[in-house]
Specification:
Layout: H1 5-19, E1 20-21, E2 24-25, H2 32-43, E3 51-54, E4 60-64, E5 68-76, H3 90-106, E6 113-119, H4 133-139, H5 144-148, H6 158-164, E7 182-190, H7 195-199, E8 203-209, E9 211-220, E10 224-225, H8 237-253, E11 259-261, E12 265-268, E13 274-275, E14 278-287, H9 290-310, E15 314-323, E16 326-327, H10 330-344, E17 349-352, H11 357-363, E18 368-373, H12 389-413
The protein binds zinc ion (ZN).
Zinc ion binds next to loops.
Length: 414
């Protein structure tokens, strides 16, 4: 039995049928629909020469034992955001399953190295606002104390929701055992952005995930009557924030892949007859290069002080969250490029703006690489998320090729 990428597309449609409604995919982690998706996935394993278990953090592991204990990991996530698309995360899992089936068939149940497919628990963080939960438990970077008390919109704590699914947060550290013998990790994902479509390329090699600096910025001015206060005497906090909102485009524009976003802006008192006395903004900055990220952060801070001064205001910053850039393994990047070239003729290397489970695996010191397949219109986390079927099929074939090359590399390196 050889690789059958058409089966992957058929299974993706089957999963969509089972877990989507008219608004899109509803496989939010720790919900009944998500568990239904996982039960459905388990039926696809029947008859394969594998072992199947859930680890202490709820990650779903399928193991095909090989002649060597050295292990190739292939990952994805069946969970989705509410009203999500049919491909985000599930393409990775089902393509990985097809690759695993091919190895099982070709090597009569015993490939040269062990192959493990993992469906990570709660990649999206859609219900509790904590992304990459299962993979962070695997990597040992979890934050149990902070996470267990998180609540969903109905006030249910994360700890209770997980317990209902048989997962006890105290046991999270046991998930680190799954790292044993891991020699490499590969993950296929839809791009979720417009770059590959614009270049007319079906597949791309992911350089790594961008680092993120995320800050709250507050400008303080003076509330004053809109009729009585002359223009020259105003201390308009919105004017200072507005200048910064435009300046971040210049700050990001000096670097080819950098992005800066002011996603939220609130004015106080926020009424039509008052000059804005206080303006609260957020800034999200991302780049694959830590030095670029640090420079952009510095420049944004300097600019905010300059604009505050010009408007006779003051400014304060507080960090919401940050993560360093995580570049993928250089040799695996080469192997991925080779696989993409063989299957689609041309390759392109690009960074990932969104974070992925692969970032956590890489942080754990396991050589890691990701492959992207083109997203139509660059849209994701939306029911209109889509990719051409021929590109989906190519991506399964390219992942399979990458898996073969990575297995050879694992054998040679050890
Ligand atoms: Zn995803």
């Amino acid at each position: 039995m050889s690789l059958n990428p058409k089966r992957t597309v058929a299974e993706l449609k089957e999963l969509r049928e089972l877990t989507a409604d008219e608004n899109g995919a509803q496989r939010v982690a720790w919900t009944d629909v998500w568990q239904k998706a996982r039960k459905w996935f388990a039926t696809k394993l029947v008859g394969l020469p594998i072992e199947h278990h859930y680890d202490a953090a709820g990650n779903n592991w399928v193991t095909l034992r090989g002649a060597s204990d050295k292990t190739l990991l292939i990952g994805g996530h069946l969970d989705s955001v509410p009203n999500g698309g049919w491909l985000d995360g599930s393409l990775n899992v089902l393509a990985g399953l097809e690759v695993l089936r091919r190895f099982a068939a070709e090597f009569k149940g015993k490939p040269p190295v062990t192959i493990r497919l993992v469906d990570w628990a709660d990649e999206e963080g859609a219900r509790f606002g904590r992304s990459l939960l299962g993979s962070s438990a695997f990597a040992g970077t979890h934050s149990i104390a902070a996470d267990r008390v998180r609540t969903d919109k109905d006030g249910i704590t994360m700890e209770d929701a997980l317990r209902r699914c048989g997962v006890h947060m105290d046991h999270f550290p046991e998930a680190e055992k799954e790292r044993a013998n891991a020699a490499a990790y590969i993950e296929l994902h839809i791009e979720q952005g417009p770059v590959l479509e614009k270049l007319g390329l079906p597949l791309g090699v992911v350089l790594g995930t961008k680092g993120v600096e995320r800050h709250a910025i507050t400008f303080h001015g003076q509330e004053a009557h809109s009729g009585a206060t002359p223009m020259k005497q105003r201390r308009d906090a919105l004017a200072a924030a507005a200048k910064l909102a435009l300046e971040i485009r210049n700050i990001a524009g000096k670097h080819s892949d950098a992005v800066c976003t002011m996603g939220s802006l609130q004015t106080f008192p926020g009424i039509v007859t008052a000059v804005v006395g206080r303006c609260e903004a957020t800034l999200d900055q991302r780049d694959l290069d830590g030095k670029v990220l640090a420079q952009m952060y510095r420049e944004a801070q300097e600019a905010s002080k300059r604009f505050a001064g010009e408007e006779n205001c003051t400014v304060e910053w507080s960090r919401i969250w940050s993560i360093e850039p995580i570049p993928f393994h250089s040799h695996l990047l080469d192997l991925c490029e080779q696989a993409v070239r063989e299957i689609s003729g041309k390759s392109h290397r690009l960074p990932s703006g969104p974070l992925h489970d692969a970032a956590e695996v890489s942080r754990a010191g396991i050589p890691t690489v990701m492959m992207f397949v083109q997203s139509l219109r660059g849209i994701s986390h939306n029911k209109i998320e889509d990719t051409r079927e021929e590109h989906l099929e190519m991506s399964v074939t390219a992942l399979d090729r990458l898996a073969t090359e990575t297995v050879d590399w694992i054998l040679k390196a050890n």
